Every structure is written in structure tokens, then in C-alpha cells.
TrEMBL record:
Pfam families recorded: TetR_N
SUPFAM superfamilies, sorted: Homeodomain-like
This protein's name: HTH tetR-type domain-containing protein
Species name: Marinomonas piezotolerans
UniProt keyword terms in alphabetical order: DNA-binding
Portion annotated as DNA-binding: 31-50
Gene Ontology molecular function, alphabetical: DNA binding
Cross-referenced InterPro entries: Homeodomain-like_sf, HTH-type_Tx_Regulator, HTH_TetR
Length: 222
């Protein structure tokens, strides 16, 4: 087996350092010195890889976004109806809040989904809204606006639960989904049945994770 090069290992340590700090501290309070010290490298070495701390965050966010989106695709494929897939998508992030403590810290220590997920929830929700089966039932013409409206409502709500160290009961999870689907113009029995769909729990490994190992194994599970 070929051993990783020193540069790859150093890059991996920096990425892991960013993750670890994000789980413990607000990003605005983190400095390049913090990242470098956590990774055990000099500040000069940090700048061999990144132009700024925000550049480092973007790199880690992109890597973890790919992992999360692959995971979400697995659970979305368990449902045929688009309303149920939207329900699954929303409940996925509720599940993270309720049972994936390190991922919950990663997402809900931020100010928006877009801070931790490339494109935010909108990038996942908009294509589902555009599916003809749902779009024909809705009363709006701009799927992106609808997706942004839902994201802007859901994120602060879940962040508030996280800040209070509370879980979202299933009954409230159903109500959150009903509100989201209602905002898209859905009514009737299809709304209620979709809101009650259970999102499967996935064995997503805890953070921090070695990006180097993820890229080489194409895995994200313990």
C-alpha cells in the first residue's frame, strides 16, 4: 500500500482541526493561530494550504457537503412520492439534531444551513419542489423562493432547539413538516401522510473525520 505524502497528511490535519474547532467554538472566535495550533503546524504552513481561515472553512464545508448529500440521497430513495421525499429531507436534519451530537454542533452552531452546507437546504429542496407532481399542486411559480422561505423558517427553529439542548419530539417534527408542505401549497390527505413518514436513521460517523480517509475509501460511516 502506498503511504500518503507528507503534504496530504498535513492538509488532513488542518481539515480535521477546522472540524474540531467548529464543534467547540463559534467560527467568528476562531483564528488562523487556533487552527494551526490544533493541527500542530506553524501559521506559515497554514498559509501554504489556505489564503484565510474562511478559505479553510469553505474547503471543509465542500468535503462534508459531499458526504452529507450522498447520505441524504440514500434516504430520499426510500420514498416514491415527492411530498414524502421532502418530508424525509426535513426530518433528516431533525434526526441530526436529535441523535448526531457532533453533526448537530457542526450545523447548528452556524447562522444558516448555507454556512455548513454548500448551497444550503435550498440546493436540496428546490429540485424536489420542481418535480412536476408537486409543482402542479402548488400556487407559486418560483421554486427557489419557496425553498428559501422553507429554509429560513426551519433553520432558526432547529437552531433554537439545539441552543436549548432540547430534542424535537416526533409530534412536533410532524408539525414542522406540515407547515413546510403547506407553505408549498399542499393540502389534504397527501400532506398528512407525507408528514408522518419516518426518516431512516443512517450510521453517519461522528465528526471530526479524516477527509483523506473519506476520499480514499469513499465512505462516511463508522
Amino acid at each position: 500500500m502506498t503511504l500518503p505524502k507528507k503534504r496530504q497528511l498535513t492538509h488532513d490535519r488542518l481539515r480535521t482541526s477546522v472540524q474540531r474547532l467548529l464543534l467547540e467554538t463559534d467560527w467568528t472566535d476562531i483564528t488562523v493561530q487556533h487552527v494551526s495550533s490544533q493541527a500542530g503546524v506553524s501559521i506559515g504552513t497554514f498559509y501554504n494550504y489556505y489564503d484565510s481561515k474562511d478559505d479553510a472553512l469553505r474547503d471543509v464545508r465542500t468535503c462534508l457537503t459531499e458526504l452529507v448529500k450522498k447520505d441524504i440521497l440514500l434516504v430520499l430513495n426510500t420514498q416514491a412520492e415527492v411530498e414524502s421525499r421532502i418530508s424525509i429531507l426535513i426530518k433528516y436534519f431533525i434526526n441530526i439534531l436529535n441523535s448526531q451530537s457532533t453533526w448537530a454542533n457542526y450545523f447548528y452552531r452556524a447562522e444558516s444551513f448555507a454556512d455548513r452546507l454548500d448551497g444550503g437546504l435550498v440546493s436540496l429542496l428546490e429540485p424536489l419542489i420542481l418535480e412536476s407532481a408537486l409543482f402542479q399542486k402548488s400556487h407559486f411559480k418560483d421554486a427557489k423562493i419557496a425553498a428559501q422561505f422553507v429554509e429560513n423558517g426551519i433553520y432558526p427553529l432547529l437552531k433554537n432547539y439545539h441552543d436549548k439542548n432540547q430534542v424535537v419530539p416526533e409530534s412536533e417534527s410532524v408539525q414542522i413538516v406540515i407547515l413546510a408542505l403547506s407553505a408549498m401549497g399542499l393540502i389534504g390527505s397527501s400532506l398528512d401522510s407525507a408528514a408522518k413518514v419516518v426518516c431512516p436513521m443512517t450510521p453517519l460517523a461522528s465528526l471530526p473525520q479524516s477527509i483523506y480517509e473519506l476520499e480514499n475509501t469513499k465512505a462516511g460511516y463508522a
